[in-house]
Amino acid sequence: MLEEKLKVKIANKKKEICEFDLVLYEGHPDNNDYVKLVLQQKEQAIAFSADNYFKALEKLRRYLEDRNQKILCKGSNKNVYPSAMQLDMGTGRNAYSLTLGKQAKLADVVDIFDESNFDSCVSCDKQKDFFEKWIESLNK
Fold it and tell me: How far is it, in rounded angstroms, from Cα 19 to Cα 73?
């Protein structure tokens, strides 16, 4: 099982920011198509697993949204979303930074765990809405 430890920032609605450890696990003895995120601070830890990092991050984000918090990373940005191929052929760690009316290119790929700013990060639902608008904008 591969393991990587990152530092991430989580903010509340007042823009107060705390730093956490985020441990990424990839692979499982029984299932290679498995990833896990473990958010840690001091003695506390909470885990989220899925078949790719983007889905696991979405589970973490929804957990935080219920607590009026958000993780400040590219994967929370309104205009960042993975393609089906990024999810199927990889671990969902990379996604495209999308622009309405423009096809995504390799140069638009970002690591979903790279740091982002408070104002760029939105709810999971707003992110999905933007992705659907982006798809529509390509058909015009």
Answer: 12
